[in-house]
Amino acid sequence: MQRKGSNTMLSTMVFRTRISSLLISMFAIFASFYVAGRLWQDSENRVYLIKELDRITGLGQSAISVDDTLKIIACREQHKRLSALEMGLAAAKQEGFTLKRSADTNGADSKRRPLVVIGVLTRFGRQHNRDAIRKAWMGSGATLKKMENEKGIVSRFVIGRSANRGDSLDRSIDNENRQTNDFIILDQVEAPGELPKKAKMFFALAAETWDAEFYAKLNDDVYVNIDALGATLTSHLDKPRVYIGCMKSGEVFSEPGHKWYEPDWWKFGDKKSYFRHASGEMYVISRALAKFISINRSLLRTYAHDDVSAGSWFLGLDVKHIDEAKFCCSSWST
């Protein structure tokens, strides 16, 4: 009886062992099929993605990285935008200087970008000059707004803050601005030696505030023929990087007591002559140059004079210099 019971138990254990081995084998087979299927699916996905990238980028059999793909997509988007800008500029030239309202892709009315933003650099104690400019060509209130809407010309007086913040000088400008609403007040000290930085800050802030075709710097004793300025600038809409003004060079003065003393005179060579730049009374730069100043303002150095400083910022760039006689003092009437 004991022998028979032992044989039965042994048979049962062998049977269970066989079943366990069979289950393990089946599990292993299923697992192998699953892993193989996933690997096959992943490889199919990779092949599909590579083919799609090749189709989109036109690179034939070569696969590219995700970073390169994003760069290509960004470049194509830029090309689309440039094509749209070129079409817009061509349409603007056909329609003439006066800006009109156009319909966007959704059918809603939208304004084209301003033709030019004019910054009239002024100082404390010069309200008489500002009032004369308002009466002569800039206007105020509804007249100023009409010039912006109909002609696309935005004009503002540009001034800094007093070294003694909040004093009577600052309060006087704030009061004037509340009445006229035609100032750009910079967060920097208003001082004669800070004029180059003031011009740089104006271009940077104006480029961030208005997306215009051009940006102009004027002194507060310059009187502008708005229609003539508009016609002149419209003729240069086809130039993406343009610098317009009464071009000159001039001597660099190294004597500290001289009115036009240049502390960095030694940087201009033995003959001490300035590079070509536009006279500071009035000059105009295109949108690309204004945005360049805005982006690199912390890196762009200034010299003793704002016009020389502006000219230096464009020396290393592919910029078209336009010597415009209408911007020269000799061409101005009394």
From TrEMBL:
Topology class, membrane:
Single-pass type II membrane protein
Pathway(s) served = Protein modification; protein glycosylation
Q: Where in the cell is it found?
A: Golgi apparatus membrane
Instruction: Tell me, in one coarse class, where this protein mainly resides.
Output: Golgi
The EC designation for this entry is 2.4.1.-
Q: What class of enzyme is it?
A: transferase
TM ranges are 21-40
| Obligatory cofactor(s) | Mn(2+)
State a single Gene Ontology molecular function: galactosyltransferase activity
Q: Which InterPro entries has this protein been placed in?
A: Glyco_trans_31
Which key words tag this protein in UniProt?
Answer: Glycosyltransferase, Golgi apparatus, Manganese, Membrane, Signal-anchor, Transferase, Transmembrane, Transmembrane helix
Gene Ontology terms: cellular component: Golgi membrane
Q: Which domain of life is it from?
A: Eukaryota
Q: Which PANTHER family match?
A: BETA-1,3-N-ACETYLGLUCOSAMINYLTRANSFERASE, HYDROXYPROLINE O-GALACTOSYLTRANSFERASE HPGT1
Family named by the database record? Belongs to the glycosyltransferase 31 family.
> What's the protein name?
Hexosyltransferase
Q: Which organism is it from?
A: Corchorus capsularis (Jute)
